[in-house]
UniProtKB/TrEMBL annotation, chain A:
Domain of life: Bacteria
Keywords noted in UniProt: ATP-binding, Cell membrane, Hydrolase, Membrane, Nucleotide-binding, Sulfate transport, Translocase, Transport
Keyword ATP-binding belongs to the record: yes
Coiled coil location: none
Domain annotation ABC transporter: ranges: 3-237
Isomerase listed as a keyword: no
The protein's name: Sulfate ABC transporter ATP-binding protein
Database matches in CDD domains: ABC_CysA_sulfate_importer
Top EC class of this enzyme: hydrolase
EC number: 3.6.3.25
This protein's encoding gene: cysA
Single GO molecular function: ATP binding
UniProtKB/TrEMBL annotation, chain B:
Keyword Cell inner membrane: yes
Entry-linked Gene3D superfamilies: MetI-like (1.10.3720.10)
Annotated GO MF terms: ABC-type sulfate transporter activity
Self-association and partners: The complex is composed of two ATP-binding proteins (CysA), two transmembrane proteins (CysT and CysW) and a solute-binding protein (CysP).
Source organism of this protein record: Aquitalea aquatica
PROSITE patterns per UniProt: ABC_TM1
Location(s) in or outside the cell: Cell inner membrane
Name of the protein this chain belongs to: Sulfate transport system permease protein CysW
Transmembrane segments: 12-36, 56-85, 97-120, 132-155, 241-261
The keyword Zinc appears for this protein: no
Superkingdom: Bacteria
Predominant location: membrane
PANTHER family xrefs: SULFATE TRANSPORT SYSTEM PERMEASE PROTEIN, SULFATE TRANSPORT SYSTEM PERMEASE PROTEIN CYSW
Amino acid sequence: MSIEIRNIRKQFGQFTALDNVSLDIAAGELLALLGPSGCGKTTLLRIIAGLEKPDAGQVLFGGADATHTHVAERQVGFVFQHYALFRHMTVFDNVAFGLSVKPRRERPSAEEIRERVMKLLKMVQLDWLADAYPGQLSGGQRQRIALARSLAVEPKVLLLDEPFGALDAKVRKDLRRWLRELHNDMHITSVFVTHDQEEALEVSDRVVVMDHGHIEQVGRPDDIYEHPATPFVTQFLGDVNLFHGRVDAGQLTIGSYEQALGQHQDADGDAAVAYVRPHDLDLTLQADGALAQGRVEHIHAVGPVVRVELQQADGQTIEAAVSKERFRALGIVPGDTVYVTPRKLAVFLKDAAGQQDYVI
Amino acid sequence: MANLTTESRPVRYVLTAVALVFLFLFLLLPLIGVFWEALHKGWQLYLTALVEPEAWSAIKLTLISAAIAVPLNLVFGVSAAWAIARFDFRGKSLLTTLIDLPFAVSPVVAGLMFILLFGANTAAGGWLQDHGLQVIFAVPGIVLATVFVTFPFVARELIPLMQSQGADEEQAAIVLGASGWQTFRKVTLPNIKWGLLYGVILTNARAMGEFGAVSVVSGHIRGETNTIPLHVEILYNEYNFVGAFACASLLALLALVTLLVKSLVEWHLHRQQHASTLRTAEARLQAAQP
């Protein structure tokens, strides 16, 4: 079922959680709401679920207005950040809960409930834990039981609040792949909230990047990563180096470095910031055509990529990531002076108000 | 291994001994004293002291006021705790403070408040008396005073418990389609049942044992407005020690029975949990084998 969000506003006292947010979610899509804490992503999820009421705006499910539909009638599955399993019930009873509270005439027979619950438990590979209480399960097991419980009522929409937030790195990776596969099999419209850009980019069909109650950018993961629309998105999606300069008629100037841009043709000597990811920076020993120079401070050579930290004359740090081969060919050691050239940069003009640098 | 984290042996023995001696001197010895005083002249006298009409009327009145105060404060306590732990509203902190009022006010003052409110010379009391309802120096006053002093127990027990548990499970139940009542019965109540039981036990103990507030509004009319604690005091002042301690032992016995019930329920629950843990461990083993 498709979801439309139209001009949603939500205020908590003086704090604006959502400021005129609109978003279309296609049927069967797996969408990630990504942003730092306090950006409004969880509030938006809870408004879709009906756990929170918007101050203004509409939520449409399959084209029909559901803004005033009660949570219990929205037919959504919701997986809470800390799972919210019923601690006094067994795993079986937890998963059966949604079926057993249905009104008598809609409720399946005890035998049917048993069958459906066991089928779901098999699907999450935990049927052997049917008799256990939530307190006896590990975090990953609880997560899967919470998912099975929300799927038992055959929801039209699945909503997950930081689904992997409370798990350790290894379990996280496994569950991520598992959720992706599950979605491929079931094709239920799913929205999940996360503050982890890697998670959002890896799992979802589309990513919505949010900040301060606004949507900054919506797009496919590779699109967002390759073409971030705003400085915030650029910074939030991963480590990035900042270089301050000017743009005049599509020509970028940073110190003595010059490059023609395919954009900002009407800029007239405007102040600009160029963002370069560490792996888009190449290290050289030649000063010609270099963007900047710095002294090698640290070298982290663990893994396939070598991360080199440079200190500029003005104290700013530059981080570059080069392949092991390139690093060996350069033969640099801490204390050396090296030069960096960008393979790819994202340039944003500072607007009249002075574009602030986002701190994450 | 344990020696690294615990006190040395002599220190442990001394601390344990101090605790045990204290327990014996201040809890066990007085309790034994009460029963010994009540029974040392024989069963016959003990039973006679309990079934004589004035004692019997005091027992009945105590049970009646507890039977009214406990359910009333149970319902109130759960609603208040629910409201305070789950919702934000204007006047929430005022309500939280008001719940504590009966603890802050001396019971005697509480009794006097009711006399000032419902005494025969006041507007409310006069009006009620004209309509055939005497509050002060009668059963309604005793019930009112009992409800007032036992007011905070259930809510006090539940508010921190419900706040620490959070609303997640209840929200999960509602998203899964449960109605408000189903959510309360199947999710909220099982989660708070131990706190609730404890609150009820405390309420009951205080309702039956309350002296100060009840003493002020009762008027001490023998066979009519005496509860067990008031009756004990009267007998004691008349040097009827067997009678006084017989009634006192009844109160003590009630306390012991409630404690026993609580332990039994806890033991039963613990056994269920343990059985489930064993079953899970077995299932884990089976799942691990190819």
